[in-house]
């Protein structure tokens, strides 16, 4: 052992002794707005009482009680009462006077009692934080004492789940909604119609599902191979209105709003396969539900009145099912080829004195907006709805880049930031050659998600108010099973929740990746959900030049092990188990390679991280 090693070890000892003396930081994700950690713990005992004052607070007490029963086997008494009853108690204080839009809560944890207060939503989030704080220590079930005052940065915190390319069981949709709620996300944007499948039962137009929900095959190879690779296996399915009502109610209980998306005027091949007369020209079709991924030229005819009658009928049923303030009408990637040569579309352009087909799209969206507004709802659409003039009350989902969102905010429209460059979760999250098949060109590792600030610089204070939130998109061309969706969603969801809820200055990426996320992944690891196991903390795929190297690694999942070798093959459990820093000393001209893998308690593995060391 050399001197430097002894010194380093001494330093490490001092550092660990210091951190032991400190109160451990509770691992809450997303990080609360303010959290003052205090000495001591509140211990949950069989005699702990949950106190409530009214029906809403009784419900939140019951939610916490069922969590404790399920996870820790203790049945807690719940009774109406006041926080001053002198017992070891948790008091759920409903403050109904706060506005519905207020999602804030206060959570005060002392050794003798806990008080959580807020309106119904705030109380729900307070309980989510409490559930994250519960820990087991030497048989004790306890929560670290702390004063927490919390509220979200953004009102809109969502994911977009596409079920057009592939469809998933109701149980899976519910499991996603549960995870959203756990991380204080509040929007599930449900992309229900695509060229490749119509997924929502519409009573008035049964062929939408009997025909439009099924395709003859699916593309199985990569996007760039789009002329080949159809599997010729019939594929399809849809959600019945009963299933949808059940899911909407499930989401409501968890304070998640489901925003349905009915794509128009493009991405409508499945609807046209069912009702070809809605396309351009005198005798359109026949069409088939699309099999290759991509964009299709056949779209709803903007000249025919029966297109609008159809869409208004569909939207009427949709609005009966979904109580959301916003209805998503798509609006993206609508080719204008057919409109250019359609006599009905051209007549519409002439009659309405429109400049071109972009203004025709704008006419289309504005007309739909007027209808949706007449039912007391608002539309939101992908950023192409800016082209040709934005509908007066529409909100914009900025997906192609950030600039479109800036443009919309400057026009005083509300904006949800969903740029593909940062929050498209269909993009890969690691080395392309090692990651599962994913869409085209994009690369959105979790670090990039966490670093994304949804409010762009360069907006005035007033314009910034129009950035109402952030949303990640899960397009599913290459996600034929819900397992793959899970792999693409977790743990990027946790980073998304952090940027959606937590103010920028409170986001500490080292604390997120090294302290909090490992605890959350350890919990996820005990469930049946798949997730992408991050590589060891402290190393990355890179080349380092020098003579001596000291490599320290940390498990990204609490309780996981790291194995490594220098031989070049993928690391596995028969290799060296990492338990102390690795030293590498190179002769002149020598090079070495370190490969390391994480294996979690449930046996899940990370993709190998490879580091090269060269002494030139
Ligand atoms: C989109 O990704 N086409 C909105
Ligand atoms: Zn037409």
From TrEMBL:
It is an enzyme of class 3 (hydrolase). Belongs to the glycosyl hydrolase 20 family. One of its GO terms (molecular function) is beta-N-acetylhexosaminidase activity. PANTHER family: BETA-HEXOSAMINIDASE, BETA-N-ACETYLHEXOSAMINIDASE. One of its GO terms (biological process) is glycosaminoglycan metabolic process. Pfam families: Glyco_hydro_20, Glyco_hydro_20b. This is beta-N-acetylhexosaminidase. Its EC number is 3.2.1.52. Residues 26-151 form the Beta-hexosaminidase bacterial type N-terminal domain.
């Amino acid at each position: 052992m050399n001197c430097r090693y002894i010194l380093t070890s001494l330093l490490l000892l001092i550092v660990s002794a210091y951190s032991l003396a400190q109160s451990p930081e509770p691992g809450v994700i997303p990080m609360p707005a303010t959290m003052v950690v205090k000495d001591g713990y509140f211990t949950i005992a069989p005699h702990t009482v949950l106190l409530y004052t009214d029906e809403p607070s009784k419900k939140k007490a019951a939610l916490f009680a069922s969590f404790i029963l399920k996870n820790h086997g203790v049945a807690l008494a719940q009774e109406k009462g006041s926080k001053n009853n002198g017992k070891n108690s948790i008091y759920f204080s409903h403050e109904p006077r706060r506005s519905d839009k207020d999602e804030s809560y206060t959570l005060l944890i002392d050794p003798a009692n806990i008080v959580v207060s807020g309106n119904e939503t705030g109380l729900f989030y307070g309980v989510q934080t409490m559930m994250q704080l519960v820990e087991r220590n030497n048989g004790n079930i306890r929560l670290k004492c702390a004063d927490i005052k919390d509220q979200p940065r953004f009102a809109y915190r969502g994911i977009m789940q596409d079920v057009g390319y592939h469809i998933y069981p109701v149980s899976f949709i519910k499991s996603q909604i549960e995870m959203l709620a756990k991380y204080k996300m509040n929007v599930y944007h449900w992309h229900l119609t695509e060229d490749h499948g119509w997924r929502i039962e519409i009573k008035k137009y049964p062929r939408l599902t009997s025909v439009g929900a099924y395709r003859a095959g699916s593309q199985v190879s990569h996007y760039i191979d789009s002329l080949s690779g159809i599997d010729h296996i019939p594929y399809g399915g849809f959600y019945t209105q009963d299933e949808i009502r059940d899911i909407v109610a499930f989401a409501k209980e968890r304070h998640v709003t489901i925003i349905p998306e009915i794509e128009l005027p493009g991405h409508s091949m499945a609807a046209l396969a069912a009702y070809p007369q809605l396309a351009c020209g005198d005798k359109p079709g026949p069409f088939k539900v699309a099999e290759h991924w991509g964009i299709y030229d056949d779209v709803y005819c903007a000249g025919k009145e029966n297109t609008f009658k159809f869409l208004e009928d569909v939207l009427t049923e949709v609005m009966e099912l979904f109580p959301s303030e916003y209805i998503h009408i798509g609006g993206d990637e609508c080719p204008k080829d057919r409109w250019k040569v359609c006599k009905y579309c051209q007549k519409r352009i002439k009659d309405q004195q429109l400049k071109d087909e972009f203004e025709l799209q704008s006419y289309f969206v504005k007309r739909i907006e007027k209808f949706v507004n007449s039912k007391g709802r608002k539309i939101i659409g992908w950023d192409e709805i800016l082209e040709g003039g934005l509908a007066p009350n529409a909100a914009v989902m900025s997906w192609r880049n950030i600039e479109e969102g800036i443009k919309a905010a400057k026009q005083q429209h509300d904006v949800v930031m969903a740029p593909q460059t940062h929050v498209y979760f269909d993009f890969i999250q690691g080395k392309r050659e090692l990651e599962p098949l994913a869409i085209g060109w994009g690369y959105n590792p979790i670090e990039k998600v966490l670093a994304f600030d949804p409010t762009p610089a360069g907006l005035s204070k007033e314009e910034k108010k129009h950035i109402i939130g952030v949303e990640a998109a899960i397009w599913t061309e290459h996600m034929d099973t819900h397992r793959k969706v899970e792999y693409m969603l977790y743990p990027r969801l946790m980073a998304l929740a952090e940027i959606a809820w937590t103010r920028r200055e409170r986001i500490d990426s080292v604390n997120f990746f090294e302290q909090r996320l490992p605890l959350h992944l350890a919990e996820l690891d005990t469930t049946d959900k798949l997730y992408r196991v991050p590589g060891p903390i402290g190393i990355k795929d890179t080349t380092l030049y020098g003579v001596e190297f000291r490599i320290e690694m940390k498990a990204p999942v609490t309780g996981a092990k790291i194995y490594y070798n220098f031989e070049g093959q993928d690391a596995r459990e028969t290799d060296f188990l990492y338990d102390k820093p690795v030293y590498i000393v190179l002769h002149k001209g020598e090079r070495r390679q370190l490969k390391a893998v994480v294996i979690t308690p449930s046996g899940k593995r990370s993709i190998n991280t490879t580091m090269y060391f060269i002494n030139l």
